Amino acid sequence: MIEPLHTPGTIEEIQEIVRTTSRIMTRGGGTKPALSTSREGMATIELQKISGVTEYKPEEYTITALAGTRLEEVNQLLSSHGQFFPFDPPLVKKGATLGGTVAAGLSGPGRYQYGGVRDFLLGVKYVDSQGRLIRTGGKVVKNVAGYDLAKLMVGSL
Predict the structure, then answer these.
(1) Do residues 87 and 149 share a domain?
(2) Which of 31-35, 77-81, 88-92, 116-120 has the lowest mean pLDDT?
(3) Between 97 and which of 23, 28, 45, 91 could a Cys-Cys bridge form, CB atoms 3.0 to 4.6 Å apart?
(4) Count of beta carbons in the 10 Å neighbourhood of residue 27
(5) Is the pLDDT confidence value at 102 over 90?
(6) Are 148 and 101 members of one domain?
(7) Average pLDDT over the chain, rounded to an integer
């Protein structure tokens, strides 16, 4: 049985799909097919339309972007200001996305010198299993009292 493929264009559409669908697999760029191929009985949400950099402050070294944003797009923006991904994410040229990189917890060899993707994630906004929009963390390093829930997203696939 072929399950439905959803390509929502808004966060609200994702929330509605989550509320009305029991088993879901999300997919960004599809660069890691072993991790992003839906199983029987699962619907797939493709996140290509949920993309774009929403805020970038080069002087503060912070960037906010949506999950479907391709790393190559972010890389180009960063390099225009002499900056780069310190954790050296793999599959950039193949179309890897920010959300997929965080969910898979992937860092390249730069991790050994600068730290992994987990070390650079300050906050996240995500849709939980009940369709609620949850925000955790913030835009500055000292933004958490207690356990840093944003870090749980790294490798959460």
Answers:
(1) yes
(2) 31-35
(3) 28
(4) 23
(5) yes
(6) yes
(7) 88
The number of angstroms, rounded, from the C-alpha of 126 to the middle of its chain's C-alpha atoms is 9
- What is the extent of the structural domain holding 138? 53-153
Same domain, 124 and 59: yes
Q: Is the pTM of this model over 0.70?
A: yes
Name beta bridge partners: 138.
Answer: none
What total of structural domains would you count in the chain? 2
Residue 153's CB: how many other CB atoms inside 10 A? 21
Angle at 155 between CA 150 and CA 157, to 5 degrees: 105
**Position 3 pLDDT exceeds 70:** no
If asked whether residues 42 and 62 sit together in one domain, one would say no
Contact 69, 47 (CB under 8 A): no
pLDDT at 16 over 80: yes
Judge if 137 and 64 occupy the same domain: yes
| Residue 29: predicted pLDDT | 84
Is the separation of the CB atoms in 139 and 64 below 8 Å? yes
- C-alpha to C-alpha distance for 66 and 126, rounded to whole angstroms: 10
Half-sphere exposure of 5 (CA within 13 A, CB side): 9
